[in-house]
Amino acid sequence: MSIPHVPEDAPFSAEQRQWLNSFLAKAFADMQAGAASAPAGPATPVTILVGSQTGTSESTAKKFAKQAKKRNLDPTIIDMADFENEKLSAIENLLIITSTYGDGEPPDSAADLHEWIGSDSAPKLENTKFSVLALGDREYPDFCQCGIEFDLRLEALGAERIYPRIDCDVDFDDEFAQWSDGVIDYFAPAAGAAIVDDGVDQEEDGWSKTNPFPAKLIVSRDLNAPESEKNTHHVEISLEGSGLEYQVGDALGVLPRNEDALVDEIIENLNFKPTEIVELPNGQEATLREALISSYDIRSINAAFIKDWAARGFHPYLRSLAEGGTKEQIDDFCWGRELIDLIIHFPADFSDAEEFLGALKKLQPRLYSISSSPKAHPGEVHLTVGKVVYSSHDRERGGVCSTYLCDRVDHDINIGVYMHSNNAFRPPADDKDLIMCGPGTGIAPFRAFLEERAANKASGRNWMFFGNPHEATDYLYKEEFESYLSEGTLTKMTTAWSRDQAQKVYVQDKMIEHAQELWDWFEGGASFAVCGDASRMAKDVDKALHTIAETAGGLSPEAAVEWVKALKKEKRYVRDVY
Prior knowledge:
Number of strands: 21
Radius of gyration: 27 Å
CATH architecture of the largest domain: 3-Layer(aba) Sandwich
Mean pLDDT: 91
CATH topology of the largest domain: Rossmann fold
Number of helices: 20
Distance between the termini: 60 Å
Largest sheet: 6 strands, parallel
CATH class of the largest domain: Alpha Beta
Shape: globular
Number of domains: 5
Structural class: alpha/beta
Oligomer: single chain
Low-confidence stretches: 191-205
């Protein structure tokens, strides 16, 4: 078939004829491309099981599904918490997308399937084809452990791995593209087929972690008393003109900026010119100083980074550690140190600024649990930010994003933000009771939950467990919660001030103290939500739940385990832990 064109004797000028011929050629090319990529035969079904703690795995699965449909695949996304285990052997094409949290643990939604598939009850899967995308963070020791375990167990059960597992760090656009292309090409090979990257957190309006909305700061004020050892800020940010929307339980992604003084110290010690033009991770250009402030991680170091740095350097101790040190020794060296410590005390050789930047990772956004309801604060989003400051190796240090939001951002600076949905962490229906446990900054989403339930005039009761070191200095949002108590929105407020008496008291201790009343709430259908530290608090609270089931509910230890599992399965036990 020839390309259509306008005849020479048609009544058009040369310019008009040229434009029309170009238009017809493009239309013909688009038609041919569409015909070439048109589906041939029925779509191939693919089941995607998702294990997600904060919503990233879920959004990644949606992104994959969108791309897969363009290649005549029929993807079905299932939250592992909703999956019926006995149906696993009937799945022919299986994809696993899961995160890891805590000490190499599966996310809450994946816990039941993870335990079952690792048991003797799991069936043989000789008829199953599979691949795993594992999400994680290399800053944690058990990187991508949950995805690794799913991958190895599926293989052990006889399933056929159709594409190798890929383990993803926090910045995983390239890894996702590689895995997605490989998996889709296996099921639907097509020469020259192009997949468009829409971005994991891409919103319909275009604001995402790669294209954040430039928001204005409204308020940043300390919630602690001046004499407190803590510094927790209430931050209010305007969303005016963004079109961004959120639900209570979601998180706000914030793109921080590194501290100017630290960047200047790094450049000075490397003897580079701050005005030198360099390439940014997104392919654009900026001065070296601006690139280090806005786009590169100049703080984090880990075992992999140490080995790369030592190979470029000439410090004998660091080389011997990198080449022959144990993981524990390297981790111990990294603890409390940052890039500036290596530059000053363990220098490496870089030919120019571009080579130095090539050793660094991209500066990553931080996710903060949203502490406001859009119904109570239209056009705004609120955060509760614990400022991180500490001293190590004779140097004062601070959290990159927490110090940015608490100290270094003002009303004249735009804050790059985007929304991160977390459908796994929502309040129950308005007529259901809710128990909330959020010590410290874990109070953030529960302030939002209460605002939402107050706006909805929810009939369900609300019980809050909150803890911090001292009542006099660390009672965050005290006036608001007392107001909710007086008006009846908050039915009960139970506090744990860990340092106000000789023996430390935490929220889990208060839960056990109120075991019978809590059990009665659970028996009446109450939901339980937890937010805060994953490594200690969340585990201790979980243990307290099992204890309550045994002492107040009269269950055996085995039955208590099953009761807690059932709460999670029914989505009456949800966690936003980090």
